[in-house]
C-alpha cells in the first residue's frame, strides 16, 4: 500500500513539474519579444513606398500589409490599424491605378487585404472590392486560353498553374472571402485546389521541388505551401471531406522540415543543402507553420515548440538597425542549376522577408 502511495505521489509531482515548465513559445528575452519585433516591422512598413509589380501593388506588399494588420489586432494597436487604413484609402481614389488587375493568381490575392480590412472596419467598400477579386479567380474570362478553360471545366481556378506559390496566393483570398461571407463555396474552392496541388507536387519526403522540371527544394517556394496549409486547416471544420488529405500533407512536410533545420535554428536557401546560406524568408515561413501547428495541437509541442523558439531567436539578429530583414533571397524564377540558387542576390528590407516575420510575431502573440 505504501509503495502504491509513493508511486502515486511521484506521478503527481512529475506531472506538476512538467506543467510548471515554461512554454517555449513565450517569455522571450528583451529585444526579441514578438511584441517588440512586430511593432518595429509594422511601423516601418507604414512609411514605406508601395512595391510595384507591373505597375500595380506587389503581392509581397499585400502579404506584409496583412501581417501588420494581424499584429495590430493581436496587440489592439488602434493607432497602427488607422495608419494601415490610411495607407489603403488612396487606392479607392488617387492611387486606383495601382490596384492589381484581376487576371493572375499573384494579382487576385490582393483581395485578401481588402477582405481583412472589411472584417476590422465593416466598411462595405472593402467587402465589395475583396469579393470581386475572390470571385474573378473562378470566373473564366472570355479570352481564356484552352489550358485555363480546361482547369475551369474541372472545377479549379482558371488561374491554376501548378506553381507551389499558388497555395498561398489562391487560398488566402478564398479563405478571407469565406470568413467574410460564411459561404462554404470559398472554402471548398481552396480545399479542392490544395488537395490537387498536394497530389501533383508533393514529393515522398514531404517537400516540393521548385518546379516539376527543376528538382531543387528552394526555401521560399516551399514556404508558401508551409504557410498555406495550416492557414487553410484552421478554417476547415473537422468533418470537411478534404481536411484529412491536407492534414496528411502538412504533417508530412513539417516532419521533413524539422529534420532539415540547421543547428543555428535557420533553414538554408536550398533546404537540403547544408553548405548553402541561411535564408530568412523561408525560415520565417517554416517557423510560422511550426508555431501554428503547436498552438492548434497538430504538432507535438515537446518536439516542435523548442524548434520554433530556436528559429525565432535565430531570425532576430538578421533585422538591421533600419528594421529591415536582411538575407532575403530576391524573387527567383526556376532554373535547373544548383549554383543559380546559391548565387541569388540577397536584399535587405525585401517585403518577401518582412511579411513572414510579421506573421510569426502575430502568431506568437496569439498563443
UniProtKB/TrEMBL annotation:
Residues 1-20 form the signal peptide. The lineage of its organism: Bacteria, Pseudomonadati, Bacteroidota, Sphingobacteriia, Sphingobacteriales. Coiled coil: none annotated. Keywords: Hydrolase, Signal. The active site is at 106 (nucleophile), 165 (proton donor). GO terms for biological process: carbohydrate metabolic process. GO terms for molecular function: hydrolase activity. Substrate binds at residues 106, 165. This is Glycosyl hydrolase. InterPro entries: 6-hairpin_glycosidase_sf, 6hp_glycosidase-like_sf, Glyco_hydro_88, PolySaccharide_Degr_Enz. Pfam families: Glyco_hydro_88.
Amino acid at each position: 500500500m505504501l509503495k502504491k502511495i509513493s508511486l502515486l505521489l511521484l506521478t503527481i509531482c512529475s506531472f506538476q513539474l512538467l506543467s510548471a515548465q515554461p512554454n517555449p513559445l513565450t517569455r522571450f528575452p528583451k529585444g526579441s519579444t514578438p511584441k517588440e519585433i512586430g511593432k518595429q516591422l509594422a511601423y516601418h512598413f507604414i512609411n514605406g513606398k508601395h512595391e510595384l509589380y507591373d505597375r500595380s501593388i506587389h503581392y509581397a506588399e499585400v502579404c506584409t500589409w496583412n501581417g501588420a494588420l494581424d499584429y495590430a489586432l493581436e496587440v489592439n494597436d488602434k493607432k497602427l490599424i488607422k495608419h494601415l487604413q490610411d495607407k489603403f484609402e488612396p487606392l479607392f481614389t488617387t492611387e486606383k491605378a495601382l490596384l492589381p488587375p484581376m487576371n493572375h493568381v499573384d494579382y487576385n490575392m490582393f483581395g485578401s487585404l481588402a477582405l481583412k480590412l472589411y472584417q476590422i472596419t465593416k466598411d462595405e467598400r472593402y467587402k465589395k472590392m475583396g469579393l470581386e477579386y475572390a470571385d474573378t479567380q473562378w470566373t473564366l474570362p472570355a479570352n481564356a486560353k484552352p489550358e485555363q478553360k480546361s482547369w475551369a471545366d474541372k472545377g479549379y481556378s482558371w488561374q491554376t498553374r501548378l506553381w507551389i506559390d499558388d497555395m498561398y496566393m489562391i487560398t488566402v483570398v478564398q479563405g478571407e472571402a469565406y470568413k467574410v461571407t460564411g459561404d462554404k463555396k470559398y472554402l471548398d474552392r481552396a480545399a479542392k485546389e490544395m488537395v490537387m496541388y498536394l497530389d501533383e507536387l508533393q514529393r515522398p519526403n514531404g517537400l516540393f521541388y521548385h518546379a516539376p522540371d527543376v528538382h531543387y527544394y528552394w526555401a521560399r517556394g516551399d514556404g508558401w505551401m508551409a504557410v498555406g496549409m495550416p492557414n487553410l486547416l484552421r478554417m476547415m471544420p473537422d468533418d470537411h471531406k478534404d481536411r484529412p488529405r491536407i492534414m496528411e500533407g502538412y504533417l508530412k512536410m513539417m516532419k521533413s522540415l524539422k529534420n532539415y533545420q540547421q543547428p543555428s535554428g535557420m533553414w538554408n536557401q536550398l533546404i537540403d543543402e547544408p553548405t548553402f546560406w541561411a535564408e530568412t524568408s523561408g525560415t520565417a515561413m517554416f517557423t510560422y507553420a511550426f508555431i501554428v501547428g503547436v498552438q492548434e495541437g497538430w504538432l507535438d509541442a515537446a518536439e516542435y515548440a523548442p524548434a520554433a523558439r530556436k528559429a525565432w531567436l535565430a531570425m532576430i539578429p538578421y533585422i538591421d538597425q533600419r528594421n529591415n530583414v536582411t538575407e532575403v533571397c530576391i524573387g527567383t524564377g526556376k532554373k535547373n542549376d544548383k549554383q543559380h540558387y546559391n548565387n541569388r542576390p540577397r536584399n535587405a528590407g525585401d517585403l518577401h522577408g518582412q511579411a513572414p516575420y510579421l506573421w510569426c510575431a502575430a502568431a506568437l502573440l496569439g498563443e
